[in-house]
Design brief:
By secondary structure, this protein is α/β, with parallel strands linked by helices. It has eleven helices and 15 strands. It has a domain of 214 residues: NAD(P)-binding Rossmann-like Domain (Rossmann fold, 3-Layer(aba) Sandwich). The termini are far apart. The relative contact order is 0.15.
């Protein structure tokens, strides 16, 4: 019998790609998404890629009674919990909404998995839990966490703490925090991808939207940092690699005979500067990008990238796609979106 995996936020950016990766490995994803930060485009794209419409429940994960009804309907093999707000700047303006949504959603998932004895749980965490790395820019899972810079960051930081405390009280569960670095790119078919509502905050959507003319000019936030070209360094990970990491995480958890709680970095292990991303874009799209150098952005980490050893050892997962692949897929997705309008 096919294993049902609950994917909260399954119509969102990382969630939708994970739905594809789950189906490829024979799982049956059950999506819960209330579409507050997703669109029907994702659902149509998923249907085209999969060849069938995935099961979807339009429910807010914060509504525990509605969620309980879904848990009653299926016997879940595992849960991948994406549904959360993720914009750093917005979280500073609306901290209560961020804490309310991200923490209540997580608490509901843990309560229901305990109530229904769903053993396997994967949480969308972030490299933001490391803050600004102190000694080395390459962070491994044992690198001490620092206090985050934003309410968004705190929701991930506190989320991991909640999961730890839950595990201490319920040590039979199989729990994993995946600490994502910077997810970029899109499905190679260009049927699903990132769909920023409003002005994008993240680098790559801003790059592709500038190239297509939706934004006038990209501003590079600072070129006077102590890095190889003065711009910030991040570990950009192709969203399909990231999606596959979730499936490997479920496969790891389901094999465990005893309860466990693990945190695993999901990155490539390589840092790329903002200016390098721009140059990769110019190369793969064969066009010049309109950009300018601007002031530093408040709260930006200077340089961070993953130590990617644990993901390989524990999950047998490592990133297969290059930054060129990611930028090309992101650009094809932007072009496809343009056709839709
Ligand atoms: C941030 C969060 C991360 C979160 C992610 C989700 C921190 C430290 N990191 O990542 O935890 O998961 O958002 O949205 O809070 N840049 C420009 N011009 C732009 C946009 C970005 O130069 O118009 C630069 C930024 O200064 C940064 C890099 O591009 O150096 C990447 O920025 P972004 O895509 O926003 O991601 P992070 O800030 O790394």
């Amino acid at each position: 019998m096919s294993k049902h995996v609950l994917v909260t936020g399954g119509a969102g950016y990382i969630g939708s790609h994970t739905v594809v990766a789950l189906v490829e490995k024979g799982y049956t994803p059950i999506i819960v998404d209330d579409f507050r930060n997703a669109t029907e485009v994702a659902l149509n794209g998923l249907t085209e890629i999969l060849g069938f419409q995935p099961t979807i429940h339009r429910v807010d994960v914060c509504q525990i009674d509605e969620m309980r009804a879904i848990f009653n309907e299926y016997s879940f093999h595992g849960i991948i919990h994406f549904a959360a707000y993720k914009a750093v700047g917005e979280s500073v303006e609306k901290p209560l909404q961020y804490y309310q949504n991200n923490l209540v959603g997580l608490l509901n998932m843990l309560s229901l998995m305990e109530e229904f004895k769903v053993l396997n749980f994967v949480f969308s965490s972030s490299c933001t839990v490391y803050g600004e790395p102190k000694e080395t820019k390459e962070v491994h899972e044992e690198t001490p966490k620092s206090l985050p810079e934003s309410p968004y960051g705190y929701t991930k930081w506190i989320g991991e703490q909640i999961i730890l405390d839950f595990f201490k009280s319920a040590p039979d569960f199989h729990l994993m925090n995946l600490r994502y670095f910077n997810p970029v790119g899109a499905h190679p078919t260009a049927k699903i991808g990132e769909f920023p509502l409003g002005k994008p905050n993240n680098l790559l959507p801003f790059v592709t939207q500038t190239a297509i003319g939706k934004q006038a000019c990209l501003t590079v936030f600072g070129d006077d940092y102590p890095t190889r070209d003065g711009s910030c360094v991040r570990d950009y990970i192709h969203v399909m690699d990231l999606a596959e990491a979730h499936v490997q995480a479920i496969q790891f958890l389901e094999k465990q005979e005893k309860g466990c709680l693990e945190a695993v970095n999901i990155g490539t292990g390589t840092g790329t500067t903002v200016l390098e991303v721009i140059h990769v874009f110019e190369k793969v799209s064969n066009q010049q990008l309109n950009y300018q150098i601007g002031p530093r952005r408040a709260g930006d980490v200077i340089e961070i990238y993953a130590n990617a050893t644990k993901s390989q050892e524990l999950l047998n997962w490592k990133a297969k796609r290059s930054i060129e692949d990611a930028v090309r897929d992101a650009w094809n997705w932007e072009l496809a979106l343009n056709e839709l309008k």
